[in-house]
Each structure stands twice: as structure tokens, then as C-alpha cells.
Amino acid sequence: MTLRSRQVTEGVEKAPMRSLFYAMGYTKEELEKPLVAVVSAHSEIVPGHMHLDKITEAVKAGVRMAGGTPIMVPAIGVCASNILERLVSTPATRPDIIGPPEHTTAGMFILTAAITIPGTILSQFGTSTAPSKA
């Protein structure tokens, strides 16, 4: 079975993409493992999402223990209904026109798998659409 993330980590033609990973501190050994998106709704502006950084770090540790390389990917974190109402009424941020999953961070980087960490039921649209093609 070929890992999906090999599309960005193997071959001479993928050297520019590998160089970005190396610039972020990833090692050759880490890039040889399956790259797993950890999609997190952690935010310092939404009170109900402040703790998600700790959960994200625990999930990343689990990915490492399972033999993968975790890559944290941010997701839209919406909590209060009045914030959601404003977002849905703002054309640039409506979930139905954010764009197809392949245009999200997880989709564009062609990762092998994705684990989502939503903060609330309202933030699930951000975490569920981001990795759906991962």
C-alpha cells in the first residue's frame, strides 16, 4: 500500500515540498513515516476551545507512538450561536462556500490520515471539512 503522503515526500520533483518540511524542523526520518494531520479547533479567543491545545498534544504523542508523524492543522473554531450566525451571514466565511476539502490545509498537503479535535458541535464543520480528502 502506498501512503498518500508519499506524494509530497518522495521523488526528485517533490524536493521543493520536502524543503518546506525541513524548514519547519521535520527530519528525514519523520518524513519517511505516514504524515497524519491533527486538525484542531484550539483557539485563544473561544473560551471553550482553550484546553484543546493539551488534547492536541496528547493526540500528537499518540500518533508518534503509533509510528506516524503528526502535523497540527488549524480548523475553524466557532462556539457561540451569535458568532455562528454572523459567520454564516458573511459570504467569505460561510461553510458551504469555504471551498472544497482539497483546498484546505490538510487537503493541499496530501497527508496520509487525519484526526479531528472539534471543541463544540458548532466547530465540527470546520474540523470535518478540512481533512475529508486526507
Structure description:
With 134 residues, the protein is α/β, with parallel strands linked by helices. 37% of the residues lie in helices and 13% in strands. Strands 2-1-3 form a three-stranded parallel sheet. It starts with 5 loop residues before the first helix and ends in a 5-residue tail after the last helix. The C terminus is likely disordered.
Entry summary:
The protein is an alpha/beta fold and 134 residues long.
Which SSEs are present, and which pair or pack?
Blueprint: H1 6-9, H2 15-23, H3 28-31, E1 35-40, H4 52-65, E2 69-74, H5 81-89, H6 105-108, E3 113-117, H7 124-129
Parallel strand pairs: 1-2, 1-3
Rough shape? elongated
Share in β-strands: 5-15%
Q: Which residues sit in consecutive blocks of at least 5 with pLDDT less than 50?
A: 93-103, 123-134
Rg measurement, Å = 16 Å
Helix content: 25-40%
Main sheet specs: 3 strands, parallel
How many strands appear in the DSSP assignment?
3
User: Strands of the largest sheet, in order across it?
Assistant: 2-1-3
Q: Report the end-to-end length measured between terminal Cα atoms.
A: 16 Å
Number of continuous helical runs = 7
The assigned structural class equals alpha/beta
Mean pLDDT: 74
